[in-house]
Every structure is written in C-alpha cells, then in structure tokens.
C-alpha cells in the first residue's frame, strides 16, 4: 500500500515525553484535512474493545480528556489507494473504503440506497 | 421528503416524552420557543439510507460548532480574536440561540441520567470475569457468524414492535452487557448519557421509518458485471467500518438470566440485544464522524486566516534571521498561528509573551486545541498565579513580567530556543524593558531567536531597534467601515469638573434607529474616557431605551463585577440592539462580536505619575491616531460597519501619532531594582527602545535609596536583593519582609495580598443602603487595610462554615468574590516566595484523624466530579431581557444560585479550608498590642507615605476632612475609605479636644495620630487611598530618615516637615534613648533573620545558634517595642511652613555656637559635626542640636549640664551631658551583642566600623581589620585543612 501523502516526521524526544508516538501527519488527498496520526492498523491502542474493519489512520481522540478514546482519521481507498479522510464528502464505507471519485466511477455497482445518497451529495461542494 | 416528516423525530418531541415522568415547567417554555425556532431551519440531508444519523450528524456538528464558539468566548474576550465563525448574520444568531436552548434541555436530561445511574449502581454485581476476546470467525464483511444468523431471524420481526419496546426498563441489564467499566463507553460518563440520548432519537427514527413502510425497492440487480464484490442487498450495517469486541451477546444474556432474580429480562431477546448493539455501533460511528467534522472545521478556519498565506514566509524568515518582525492587525491570526508554525517547523522551546495574564491562559487553551493538544501540556501557560507547564511543554505563553523574572534566575534564558514577543506595540513598561534585555541577550546567547509581533503601528521603530530586522506584514481581515465625523457642539462640551452631557451620544442612537431597520442586526459600542462619563451616558441611554424598546444599554469597565462584564457577551433579543458603553478596555483587551457601530469620543483617561508631588494622576487626554484607528476597526470585524467620531477631522489630524508609552508615565522603581539585580550596573545607560526622562530614573533611584533597597553606591542592599525577587511593589515587599521578622506573617500576607489586587468592594454598592449596612461589621476603625483583612477573614469563615454560599454572602455586601480568590492565590504565592528565600519556615502539615481524612477524601471526590461535569460546559450566552437591564448591583439577582459555583469547587479542591480557617481565627483574636505591632510592620513599607490632618478639620464636615502630605497639601480622603464616612477615630479624644481654639494648633496630647496611605491619586481632586491611622510620634521616630533635635530635645523635626514639641525635656530624652535602642536592635534582628534565611537555604550547621540569638533578640525587641508604642509622652505636632524649613538649621561652624563646644572625649567613637546642618551627628538618622532655637538660654545651659546617669545597657554610672548620653547609648547598644553583630550591611557602616580592629592572622600572615565575629570566622577557615594551634589573641 502506498502511503501517498502520509509523510513521516522525524521523531522528537519532546513529543515522546507526552506518551504518544506520533507516526506522521495524515493528510486527506481530497480535502486536505490534516492531523498527526499515531497508529496505522486495525486495533487502535486507545479503544481496546474496538476492531477496525480496515487498516486506518488513527489518533488519540484530541477532543477527549483521559487515556481512552480514539479518532479514526481516514484510510486508503480500496480501489485507487488514495489516502482519504472519513468525511462524508471524501469517502464512504460499504464493506470497504471507497473514495468518492471511485464511488462515482463505479456507481452502478452500489445499491440504490447509496446511489441516492451520493446523488444528493453531489451538488454539495466541499467546504473550502 | 416532506418537511413535516422531517420534524417528527426532533429532539424536543423526545423530550416531551421524557417529561411525562419528569415534569418541568421551564423546559416546556423553552421547548415551545425552540420548536418555533426549528421552523426557521432549512436544512435537509439524507436520512433514509444512512439510518438517520446523517441528518443527526449535521445537526450535531452545527451545535458542536456553536457551542465551541461560545466556549471560546473567554478567549475572544482577550486579544485573540482570530479565526472564528462569522456570527453576524441573522440565521447564524438564531441558530446559536436555538443551540443554547437545546443545550439547556440536555443538561436537564443529564440530571435524569444521573439518577438512573445511582439506582442501577447497586445492582451491578457480576459479569466481570468473562473472557472478552471474540474468537468467533467472521464473514467476509467482518461480521461474526452468530450475528449473521441473528440478522436473518431479525428480518421476521415486526420492526415497529422492536422500536416501541421500552428499552429503559432494561437499562440495567444492557449496562451489564455494553457499559462495563472496561468497555468503550463507561456508565456515568457524559458519553454514556449522550449515548442514551442518541439511542432515544434513533428509536424514534427507526419506529417512524418502519411505520412508513415504503414499498419494497426493486431488488438491486444491475445488468452490468460486478467487479467490486459488494453485497447485493443494502444493509446499513455494511456502512460501519468497525466492530466491537463484546462477548457474544447470547452467551452474556444466558449468564445474566441465571444470575438475576427477576424474569423481566425475558423480553430482552437476543435479537433485541443485537439491535441495541447495532445502535451502539451507529452511535460510535456517528461520534467519529462528528469529531472528524470538528477537525475539518478547525483546519478550514485556520486556513482561512489571513496569516495562513504567510506561513512559509514567516518560517523561512525565522530560519534565516535572528529577529523577525511580524506586523498584522487584529484578526489576522498572528497570536494563535505563529507559535504553531514555529512548533511544526521544529522549534521545541517556544516562549510567547503577552502583556496580559488572561491572554496567556486563553491563548494556551486555544492553541492547545488547535494543535490537537487540548488536554496535553505541549502548549501551556505560566502567569503570576499559576501555570500548566510540564517537561513536555513546547509552547509556553507567559507574561512579559514573568519572563523578566526568569532572566534574573536564568540570565541567558537557555530554556528557550525562540522567544515570541506579542503585542509589542502596546508599549507596556515590562514590554519595553524586555525588548532591551533581550536585545542584549541576543549578543550573549548565540542560538536564541526572536519574533516580535505587533499591530501595524510604528513598525519601523521595532525593526530599527533590532538593526533592520526583516518585517513581514500581514493584512488584517477587516470589512469596509464607513466613517462619519460628528463633532460635539460647543454648548454640549463639558469642562473637566462637569458631568458629561449625554445628548450627542443619544443622537447617535437615534440616528441608528432612523437609518438602519431593526431587522438588520448589529450592536453599538461607545468609547468614553472613564467611569463617570459611562454612568452619564448609560443613564440617559436607558431612558431612551425604555421609550423605544430597541436598545439594551450595558456599561463595561474594569471595576465592574465579572458577571456584569460578562453581560456584554450576551445576546439581545430580536429587533433590539446592545449599546455597550465602555472605556478603552474594549479597544484591545476585550473583543465583542456582533458590533457594527462604533461611537468614539476620542478621549481616554490615563494614569500618569507626578514625581514631584509623589502622586498618581488620572487625567483625560485625546487619544492617538493609532488608537482611533483601532477603535474604528472594532466595527468591521464581522461585517461592514459604521464609525462615528465625536470630534472634528482636523482634531483627528492633530492627534499624537502613537500613544505615550507607559515608560514615560509611571514610576520606574521596580524596573530599576530588577535591572540592578540582573547585574546591569548603570540604569541610566540602559538602551531602552525609547528612553524615559532622566529625571524619572533619578527619582526612582532616590526612592530606592530612601527605602533602603539601594546603597549610596547604587548596589543592592540585602533587603533590596530580596525585594528584587518578590514580584510586588517595593512597599508591599518591605511589609512582607518585616512581617517575617516579627512573626506576624499571616495577617501581613493577607493585607499585602489585598493591597496588591483590585479592591473587592464594589463602588456601586455605596448607593445601596442594604449592602452598606451589611458591610458595616467588616469595617475597622483602624483603617482600610484592616477592613480588607476583616473582609478576607470573614469570607474564609463563610467558606469554611459551608452553610452559606460565599457567592451570596459577597453579593449581599457588594463584594467581588473573584478578588478574594485572587488574594488567596497571591497570599500562597507570597508565602512560597518567602519560604524559597528562607524567610519563612515550612509549616507542619495539618494532621487529620482517620475519619476526618476519609470524609475529606470523599468530599474531594465529589468536588472533582462536579468540576469535571462543569468543565464540559462553558458559560452560556444568555439572551438579555429588555426590562432586566438596570440591575447594576447585585442585590436580589439570585437566579443563578443553583448553578454550580465552579470557583468555589476549584478553591475547595486546591486549599485546605481547615487550615485557612485556623489562621484566620488567629487573626481574629487580635489584641490592641497586636494591632499596633501590625501597624508598625505595615508602616515599614508605607513610610514615608504619611499624612497629617489639617488644623481646622474639626470645623469641617465628615466627608471634607483635609490632610497634608510632605509633597502635596490639601488632599482629601478617598470616598471608598472607612474614615471618609467615619472620621471620628482620627480625632483626639474629646476630653482633650474640648480646648479653646487658640490652643488647638499646638494641642498637647500623647495620642496624636497620622494617616498612612498606599497611594495618592488625583482624579478631580487629590485623594488618599487605603488609609490607616497610626500613632504619630512612634511612627516618625521609628521610620524617619532624619530626626533633628534642638539642644534639650524638646523639639524634634522629622524628615524636614513635621515638628514635634515636647513640654518635658526629660520625657523627650527618654523617648529618644529608647528609639536609639530600638532601631539598633531592630537592624540587628533583621540582619540575623536575613542571615538565617541564607543559612536555611544552605542548610548550614550554624543554624541553631543564629536562630536562638534571633529569637532572643526578637523577644527583647517585642518587649521594648510594646513599651515604646504604648508610651504616653505628651507632645504637640505640626507641619512646618516653607519659610521655617528654609531656616531650620544652625548650619556648620557657627563660631561661638554652643553646638561646637569641644566634643566630649569620654567615648571612643567619633562624633562628627554634621557638615551642613550643624550640631552633632549621632548616627545615620539622628542629628543632635542642629535646630535653630528661638533664643533659649535655659536650653543652652541645660546642654552643658552633667547629670548622673546609669546606662540601662551596661549598668555603668556616669555623669554625662545629654549629648554624651546619646552617644554612649548609640555605641553601648552596638557593643552589647558584638557576638551576634554580623549584620554589617544593616546596622550602618558607622557603627560597624567602630567594632573593627586590626588583627594579624598567624596562619596566613596577613593583617586584617575584623570584628570579633569575623576573627572567629576567619580562624574557622584555617581550622579544617590543617589543625594548627591557636593564633595570637587580640
Ligand atoms: Zn477528506
Ligand atoms: Zn479511490
């Protein structure tokens, strides 16, 4: 898998003191949203009872206090390997992760419910 | 999808259902309001396929962002007004109100949730020991096999029934399956409550959906080839990208059934549980998306800040240069973004200074949030009272003053790699000083870098100061502002003493009403110079508002209570505008959103310092062009605006370009003291960016010398060194040091803290008779410092008593509780400082009995829980009510009493109330002697800030009492002081006062008093602030820098302005003798204490010896001091006239004068004639026989009369003249404990020199001039390496 835009940063001793190993910055290839992720995989360390069904970029939930709580930032599209965020304008999950461009390209393969949903979304522009 | 349907599952309906059981009147009202508001909302989004949470997500995000905006109110209030939601438009505002109501309801529901939690907690017994790992195989979509079967089964279910099922009944069982302590969502947490709210909405939605029963869709089977391998039949479960590792549901259920005694759980079938589990998954998924959206919004906001485009340029410049100037106007985002840019560019130790404390806290919070570090400590703050810094901190926000203090302990500031100075254009004293210090540091510390950030004001000055540092200029984000000049007509202009005419300002309000329809939102902000001007406009404005019902008029200035200030952030109802009438506090420090109109008076009141009169002066000035622009800019932050200037354009052109920097206006005492303690020898040569007047430096140097902080050579004295370390005024610092010497530290700490913060007494309460009456018991007839002490102690008692809310207690008395919290913090900090510097011993821990400890522990847990809950929700923006606005003072305003008092909780968590109460109990049991001692200690700092009553005060009314200070005549009592309403205690007791008018002037009494005060402040009149009555002769004798006497000591002039006349020479002489003794002993004790403090720091083994001596000395001193203070010597006191002062002294070498009779040789010490005054200088403060006497043969005769006298110290009988006696005493006192006298710095060079003698050390073959103690010390240095025999004795 290519981690196209997930660049890794040189680790920093100060950062490690915080007890959190940052792997690098996750950047969505569609909307540019970015955040440092600290785990890539299916069993995030801050959510022991959760198993992800895709290999995802995860960080400790930045909006929650305490040790628990995770935030899945995004994953790679199963078709084009693009790194996309979980936002509804960038990707959707339907047994696998699809980036929105790929969904549109293969729209006929998706059930009607999703086609409807995507059609509704189309006029909505990304908030940029 | 119809709108109607869309509304069916809205939260308020849900809430109605809840209300069937838990009725609440207020929530019904708000429901109605909020449903009305919902009609205005036109938001649709898909909810069919996505299980409804699409729609919920968008709603929630909206709320989340609204609440965040509110949450950041505090931050906005401060300078950082960057990067936020545009809240100008109508719909936005409405949305906010709606969100507010919605949150309100949520809180209600949370409380219900709490109760449930309590009920269920008891039943929670088992289920812990089960293995949790899922071992079952999964299908290709990652779901477990068992689940698949259940799903099949579930198809058969009547969906409607599924969702009508009363889940609440099974909450306890469900809790045991899904919400155990180790699970993802734990019972009792806010998330848990949140989940149930979600779940109820989810049920509603599902029920409605199944009720709709849409015709089955044509089965999805496309003619095309399938390559993606997606399942044929749509299921919303496929949309979730995770699964939970709970133990198989059925297994769990079985287990539960066997364990539980009821059969209620029968209905909780596996498929229901599975459905619940699905809801649970949806909830987590929904939360994840919501959080991601929050993140996206944050990034979007950051990217849309003007400074964002300069990011690379700034980082590049900082890499290449040592100093970079970033200039950008308010709203460009520099304060929040630049530190982040630097951090992500790899800088690790970034210090960012701010002029204001609150800005440090709010910026740290904001930047922490933006760097996704809200709960970590990578971004921290440090201010005078507190800090959040840890080893992990990479960005530290701190005040300018604090960074300066760090320079004294870490002269190279090696802990930082880059220092960002924000708001340098504000030109605060500390900021200017810091610039100079850092400029010097850049040379010394090669890898240090600096970024100066300023508004686009006077940039060249800063760049030039740092040898042409590169400037990066960032445009602000301002909307166009229409400018109108509306100069005030001649007849409406007012002179200094007159009350401001509000008419021009009312016309501005009218103008707005006429020109702009009420439907167009936008508030008015009026800038006036001061409080009385604000009151005038607010009063008139409110009358106008009553007529029109279109305005809510709110004052804003720093002496308002916090709650009152916060009102300006509240929202006006539809069709009504806020009119905020403010001082220049709203120019930079407080940012209010939604302001569209500015009305600028062009005036400002500024404090200036008059060194001649030693008086602070609050004067009105025209503002600078820079401030005028800043004020104007406040109208264009969130949309196009209008600015009315209440002056002429030509006047504007004549304004000063920039405001006068603080350094030109204030005394430089503390700055100079700090400068010298940093090792900068000559403060006159300090390279300030714009140097202050030389006279200002000279004045401060003189003051510091006078206070004993600097030696004649302008080096620090031991006291000076201590003072430089204390982050307080020299005056307060001296009090603290003296407090430790006399072991009356607790009340001194309280008073010092009280004098260092704003007064807790609201001025506005003076018009409220109830508040004034309730305050009465707090008032002390000793003076304001004691009243403050009483108020503080009483407040502690109320807190510790726990029965009454201290908040209410304060409100009843018109007190600002915040100030007490500050006092506690400051007191604690003073204590730590004194301990750090060895002036105070560490106290013993307070011991608790077992049960008490347990009780306290439980209490702490409860408080922590309360605090945690509170921290979730920020202060709500309320909607202001039209009729409610005129409550200035808090009398009956009790509606928020049931709210959690978070300050109270934090306070109780941090402090041990029992301990606080105990010390304040000690304070209460003061005797008059204690009070006198306390006054002496306070005066050690306050002197020479004393005033004498005017001779004619008995003929004046209470409030018109007049006083004189040395430098300023005819000053009056500040109206807030206790003596202003009750000057009785200042007068001489009546028996003596009832004398004839003729005698009044030279009235003889033992009870004359003076007033000590903390400052002299001129507004419309010169006022004495914080006064305290003190015994006159005692204070003057103890603290005067110069005491000059005549031949028989019946006249003593203190510091060249107050004359004491004693009818009895003998009494006067006795008094003088005891003063000499006292002052010597005092200096000795102080020396010992300071010595002890440095030893304590070093853990020297001599400690006990010194301490023992000090304790002994202290006892002696305390006894002597008590005697002295209660002395009933009769005297009269008066202020000398100017001409008298000129001809005060006999002058040097007056031939034939009695003063120059051969100096007695009886004593070994030198007796110098005073070089200018004449007479004989006994020691550094006392000069004998230098006053011109009016022709007193008797006196001359007496001067030569030898009387037999026994020295009380050395018990030797002798026949001496008065002069000889004084001299003997001065020396005898010094000789008395030679062994303890090592305090050469303190007891004055003259006395110490006399104790020195030549001494030859045989070990090092050198001649020394040593005191006995020094000899011993010196010998000890030889004793260790080679145990040589004793050297020759002296
Ligand atoms: Zn994206
Ligand atoms: Zn793709």
UniProtKB/TrEMBL annotation, chain A:
<dbReference type="InterPro" id="IPR018785">
    <property type="entry name" value="CDPF1_dom"/>
</dbReference>
<comment type="similarity">
    <text>Belongs to the CDPF1 family.</text>
</comment>
<feature type="domain" description="Cysteine-rich DPF motif">
    <location>
        <begin position="26"/>
        <end position="118"/>
    </location>
</feature>
<dbReference type="InterPro" id="IPR042426">
    <property type="entry name" value="CDPF1"/>
</dbReference>
<dbReference type="Pfam" id="PF10170">
    <property type="entry name" value="C6_DPF"/>
</dbReference>
<protein>
    <recommendedName>
        <fullName>Cysteine-rich DPF motif domain-containing protein 1</fullName>
    </recommendedName>
</protein>
Automatic annotation (TrEMBL), chain B:
<dbReference type="Pfam" id="PF00270">
    <property type="entry name" value="DEAD"/>
</dbReference>
<dbReference type="Pfam" id="PF07717">
    <property type="entry name" value="OB_NTP_bind"/>
</dbReference>
<dbReference type="GO" id="GO:0003723">
    <property type="term" value="F:RNA binding"/>
</dbReference>
<dbReference type="InterPro" id="IPR001650">
    <property type="entry name" value="Helicase_C-like"/>
</dbReference>
<dbReference type="InterPro" id="IPR007502">
    <property type="entry name" value="Helicase-assoc_dom"/>
</dbReference>
<keyword id="KW-0378">Hydrolase</keyword>
<keyword id="KW-0067">ATP-binding</keyword>
<feature type="domain" description="Helicase ATP-binding">
    <location>
        <begin position="315"/>
        <end position="475"/>
    </location>
</feature>
<dbReference type="GO" id="GO:0004386">
    <property type="term" value="F:helicase activity"/>
</dbReference>
<dbReference type="InterPro" id="IPR027417">
    <property type="entry name" value="P-loop_NTPase"/>
</dbReference>
<dbReference type="GO" id="GO:0016787">
    <property type="term" value="F:hydrolase activity"/>
</dbReference>
<feature type="region of interest" description="Disordered">
    <location>
        <begin position="858"/>
        <end position="877"/>
    </location>
</feature>
<feature type="compositionally biased region" description="Basic and acidic residues">
    <location>
        <begin position="23"/>
        <end position="34"/>
    </location>
</feature>
<dbReference type="InterPro" id="IPR014001">
    <property type="entry name" value="Helicase_ATP-bd"/>
</dbReference>
<feature type="region of interest" description="Disordered">
    <location>
        <begin position="1"/>
        <end position="153"/>
    </location>
</feature>
<dbReference type="GO" id="GO:0005524">
    <property type="term" value="F:ATP binding"/>
</dbReference>
<dbReference type="InterPro" id="IPR048333">
    <property type="entry name" value="HA2_WH"/>
</dbReference>
<dbReference type="InterPro" id="IPR011545">
    <property type="entry name" value="DEAD/DEAH_box_helicase_dom"/>
</dbReference>
<dbReference type="Pfam" id="PF21010">
    <property type="entry name" value="HA2_C"/>
</dbReference>
<dbReference type="Pfam" id="PF24485">
    <property type="entry name" value="zf-C2H2_DHX34"/>
</dbReference>
<dbReference type="Pfam" id="PF00271">
    <property type="entry name" value="Helicase_C"/>
</dbReference>
<dbReference type="InterPro" id="IPR011709">
    <property type="entry name" value="DEAD-box_helicase_OB_fold"/>
</dbReference>
